[in-house]
Write a structure and sequence with these properties.
elongated, mainly alpha, single chain
Length: 189
């Protein structure tokens, strides 16, 4: 057996996970190097073109939905502007362009475009994944906001580590669900 064939044979059981990891890394770095925006969300560009509008709309929408959810459980929050939620405790959060989950939705699309399997299932599973990204993002910002009302020093830990990696774990779980249970259902192999 040729050395290349042995390598292919050894890699075959791990092909899906290798494709997942490579796609995740490439999509993430592609996003990081092509999407440019400042922390204030004044302008977001993609290859130099102004794409601020969808990010602005989504950031305002998310801020409103999170504020509405917080108001269901607490009466201590108020909107300062269309992006900022404050609490009577003095802490608060501002939703910027990077908080929109559009990056994770893009990564999800890339993952689904590169995973092996029939298009019949991908065509409905991609939007389902986007719905999960949206819902998880709302839940993430809602929970971070609730925690930082009384513990504002927890923000870096919650935002940069716990919920960031939980988001990617959720994407991985969705991907595993597709790979293990959905992609070869029926005869579209």
């Amino acid at each position: 057996m040729l050395k290349v064939e042995r390598i292919k044979e050894w890699v075959a059981p791990y092909a899906d996970i290798i494709i997942f990891m490579v796609t995740l890394l490439v999509a993430n770095y592609f996003w990081k190097f092509t999407m440019v925006g400042d922390e204030d969300g004044e302008m977001v560009t993609w290859f130099g073109m102004d794409v601020t509008a969808p990010f602005e709309w989504m950031a305002c929408h998310i801020a409103y939905v999170v504020y509405w959810l917080i108001s269901l459980v607490r009466d201590t929050a108020y909107m300062v502007d269309e992006h900022t939620i404050r609490f009577t405790s003095g802490s608060g959060t501002t939703i910027i362009w990077g908080c929109t989950a559009l990056k994770q939705s893009f990564i999800w699309l890339c993952l689904m475009l590169t995973v092996r399997g029939g298009w019949k299932h991908k065509l409905w599973f991609i939007p389902l994944g986007w719905l999960f990204c949206y819902a998880f993002n709302i839940l993430r910002i809602f929970l971070i906001s609730l925690f930082i009302e009384f513990h504002p020093d927890w923000f870096p830990l919650l935002h940069n580590y716990i919920f960031k990696y939980a988001f990617y774990a959720m994407l991985f779980g969705l991907w595993v669900w597709f790979v293990e249970k959905i992609r070869y259902v029926s005869s579209d192999r």
